[in-house]
């Protein structure tokens, strides 16, 4: 281990210490949800945080080991980072021996003038720029670093604050960029294990590079957001129900539409009354 480079050490830890908790769950998601297919050229989108940097390393490794041939491109969009944050992203990529393609946008300048929902606008604009650049580079997919914890937190947030039961899909087709898809290879990987891997390897990634916060210290939280509120709630529930996260995750794989009062499909709202009136009686 003494003769290994930081990149080799990080990869070695994924093959050994974190094989069950990270590598195996990463490959599980790739295979279970058919995220990577032969001939894919995938833009791995790197924001500079722990999740996207781990994703980049996993995709680099998987491209070497996979029996399914595909090409990863490691894409960084600079929306207007300060010099410290941008240099930290580049430095971490060099440490992990990840070759970057960096391009610029003016997203921070645009969102800085918006008073209502600037974060939502920023996220939408980022997605559009990434799709556009990926397509320009000949990619047919973009890969994002959303993980297992993001999935269950999004589900609970939708219920508590969005008044809907809505999940985060492991892959979806772009509506605005023909022939492009989005995949989430960390779908089954827990955030706690990502943090553990980061700390084990002595890595320090940017926490938030948003101009509104200008945070360039390493960290693993989400500020004072609603997501953090839900994260803390789930943490409390785990004290009395250790399987709470697994239950939430499994619930979005086993939705029983027969018991739903209403649901929406392809943008069209449906009611249980449609089935009730068609059958002529209650289903008991």
Structural class: alpha/beta
* Mean pLDDT level: 89
Q: Which strand order do you get reading across the main beta sheet?
A: 3-2-1-4-6-5
Helix % is 40-55%
Q: What can be said about the biggest beta sheet?
A: 6 strands, mixed
Strand content: 5-15%
- State Rg: 20 Å
Low-confidence stretches: 214-224
Order of helices and strands: HHEHEHEHHEHEEHHHEEH
Characterise this structure.
With about 280 residues, the chain is of the alpha/beta class. Helices cover about 45% and strands about 10% of the residues. The protein has eleven helices and eight strands. Strands 3-2-1-4-6-5 form a six-stranded mixed β-sheet, with helices on both faces.
Keywords summarizing the entry:
284 residues, alpha/beta, 6-stranded mixed β-sheet
Condensed summary:
This protein has helices at 6-15, 19-32, 50-65, 83-95, 107-111, 118-136, 148-161, 191-200, 226-240, 244-251, 272-279, and strands at 41-45, 71-78, 100-104, 141-143, 171-173, 181-183, 262-265, 268-271. With 284 residues, the chain is of the alpha/beta class.
């Amino acid at each position: 281990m003494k003769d290994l480079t930081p990149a080799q050490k990080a990869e070695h830890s994924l093959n050994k210490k974190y094989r069950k908790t990270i590598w195996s769950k990463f490959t599980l998601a790739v295979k279970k949800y058919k995220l990577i297919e032969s001939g894919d050229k995938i833009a791995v989108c790197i924001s500079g945080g722990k999740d996207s940097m781990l994703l980049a390393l996993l995709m680099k490794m998987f491209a070497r080991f996979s029996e399914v041939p595909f090409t990863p491109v490691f894409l960084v969009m600079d929306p207007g980072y300060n010099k410290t944050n941008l240099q930290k992203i580049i430095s971490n990529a060099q440490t992990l021996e990840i070759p970057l393609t960096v391009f610029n946008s003016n997203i921070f300048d645009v969102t800085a003038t918006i008073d209502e929902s600037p974060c939502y606008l920023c996220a939408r604009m980022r997605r559009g720029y990434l799709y556009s650049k990926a397509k320009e580079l000949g990619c047919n997919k973009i890969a994002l670093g959303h993980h297992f914890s993001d999935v269950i937190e999004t589900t609970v947030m939708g219920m508590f604050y969005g008044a809907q039961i809505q999940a985060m899909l492991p892959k979806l087709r772009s509506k605005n960029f023909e022939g492009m898809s989005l995949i989430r290879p960390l779908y089954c990987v827990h955030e706690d294990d990502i943090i553990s891997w980061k700390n084990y390897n002595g890595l320090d990634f940017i926490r938030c590079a948003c101009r509104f916060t200008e945070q360039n210290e390493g960290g693993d939280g989400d500020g004072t957001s609603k997501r953090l509120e839900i994260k803390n709630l789930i943490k409390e529930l785990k004290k009395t129900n250790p399987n709470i996260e697994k239950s939430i995750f499994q619930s979005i794989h086993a939705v029983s539409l027969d018991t739903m009062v209403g649901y929406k499909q392809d943008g069209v709202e449906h009611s249980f009354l449609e089935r009730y009136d068609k059958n002529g009686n209650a289903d008991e």
